């Protein structure tokens, strides 16, 4: 049986990339041709190509492997089965991260970061540090893997983000990859895609939360799932608790956007309902805003950062003393975050939890 156009182009691409001095123009031409070929390919043809892509990704140098990983991600988004690619990237990415961090460490030693540093037109940027092109070229001659890994780290991360944002089973597996999560942390400030992937590795799935509203002397058990940051968490908490607490719920357009429905941005801003704190702020009640800033639950953080107590994440809600709003948007296009109210704690349960948490402080 004749090979498909997609597989033919892929084999030309990998043959090109196997030459250490491959031609960038030729690679770009092949990549451009693979886009329509991917869309035109049947599911069987896509899966055949993905099998070869995954083998290449598993063994090629980081620069070349990243190029093919990105191509494979495009095939996944067009309907290809993600299983072999997911396994290949999960196995390979830790070593790519180690190599990328090596370049970052070398740059930080050779070029201490300076505020408002200015580079030349051909500088290679590592975060806010302009690195002279000749330094990079010398580094490539000595060991090309760290430069290639850093240069293509975005392309290594994006396919995993796409796969796990669309498929619950892969997201569940990703959250179990604690070594990968730790390896991503040092690179989050340098590569945005690494930061997004880290958020997915740390995301909470069906996590139990106790919410204490001190003003009303009421407490609620909730579950949160797939909530990527505390901006979304705040909005979804307000929606879940609007009826029992007598709040005005967030606008439906805001909730649709945050919940992964429709456009990824919304013209209607999101609003703050409370100041939120960890349970370690309880000794400062009722003046919770006097608690150390490290005990505030900031919107810029994530639910995973919230301290837990006896198997539950604990959120303590205080008065919203400063009117706050922020742009409504979601980070992951296909993720469906949720906060669900399970039940209200009775007065005895609530008081007992508060007593034990205060005792632990």
Task: Provide key terms for this protein.
361 residues, 2 domains, alpha+beta, two-stranded antiparallel sheet, 6-stranded mixed sheet, globular, 14 helices
What does this structure look like?
- With 361 residues, the protein is of the alpha+beta class.
- It has helices at 5-17, 24-40, 43-59, 62-77, 83-110, 133-142, 144-151, 153-166, 168-175, 178-184, 192-201, 230-245, 252-258, 347-360, and strands at residues 124-126, 129-131, 207-213, 218-225, 265-271, 275-277, 308-309, 312-318, 325-329, 338-344.
- Strand 1 (124-126) and strand 2 (129-131) form a beta hairpin.
- Helix 5 packs parallel to helix 10.
- The chain is globular and about 70 Å long.
SSE layout and pairings?
Blueprint: H1 5-17, H2 24-40, H3 43-59, H4 62-77, H5 83-110, E1 124-126, E2 129-131, H6 133-142, H7 144-151, H8 153-166, H9 168-175, H10 178-184, H11 192-201, E3 207-213, E4 218-225, H12 230-245, H13 252-258, E5 265-271, E6 275-277, E7 308-309, E8 312-318, E9 325-329, E10 338-344, H14 347-360
């Amino acid at each position: 049986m004749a090979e498909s156009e997609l597989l033919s182009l892929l084999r030309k691409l990998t043959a090109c990339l196997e030459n250490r001095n491959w031609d960038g123009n030729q690679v770009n031409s092949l990549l451009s041709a693979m886009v329509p070929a991917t869309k035109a390919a049947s599911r069987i043809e896509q899966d055949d190509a993905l099998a070869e892509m995954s083998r290449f990704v598993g063994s090629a140098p980081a620069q070349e492997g990243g190029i093919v990983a990105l191509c494979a991600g495009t095939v996944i988004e067009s309907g290809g089965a993600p299983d072999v690619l997911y396994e290949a990237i999960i196995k390979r990415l830790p070593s790519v991260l180690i190599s990328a961090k090596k370049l970052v460490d070398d740059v930080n030693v050779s070029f201490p970061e300076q505020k408002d540093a200015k580079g030349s037109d051909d500088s290679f940027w590592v975060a806010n540090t302009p690195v002279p092109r000749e330094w990079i070229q010398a580094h490539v001659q000595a060991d090309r893997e760290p430069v290639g890994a850093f240069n293509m780290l975005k392309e290594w991360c994006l396919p995993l983000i796409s796969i796990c944002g669309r498929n619950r089973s892969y997201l569940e597996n990703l959250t179990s990859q604690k070594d990968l999560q730790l390896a991503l942390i040092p690179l989050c400030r340098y590569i945005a895609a690494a930061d997004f992937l880290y958020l997915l590795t740390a995301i909470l799935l069906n996590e139990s939360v106790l919410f204490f509203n001190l003003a009303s002397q009421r407490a609620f058990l909730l579950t949160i799932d797939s909530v990527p940051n505390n901006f979304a968490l705040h909005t979804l908490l307000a929606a879940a608790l609007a009826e029992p607490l007598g709040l005005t719920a967030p606008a439906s357009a805001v909730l649709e956007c945050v919940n992964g429905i429709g456009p990824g941005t919304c013209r209607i801003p999101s609003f703050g309902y409370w100041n939120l704190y960890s349970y370690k702020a309880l000794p400062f009640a009722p003046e919770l805003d006097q608690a150390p800033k490290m005990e505030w639950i900031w919107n810029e953080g994530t639910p995973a950062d919230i301290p837990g107590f006896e198997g539950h994440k604990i959120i303590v809600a205080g008065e919203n003393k400063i009117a706050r709003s922020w742009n409504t948007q979601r980070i992951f296009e296909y993720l469906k975050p949720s906060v669900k109210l399970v039940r209200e704690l009775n007065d005895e349960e609530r008081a007992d939890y508060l007593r034990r948490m205060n005792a632990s402080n």
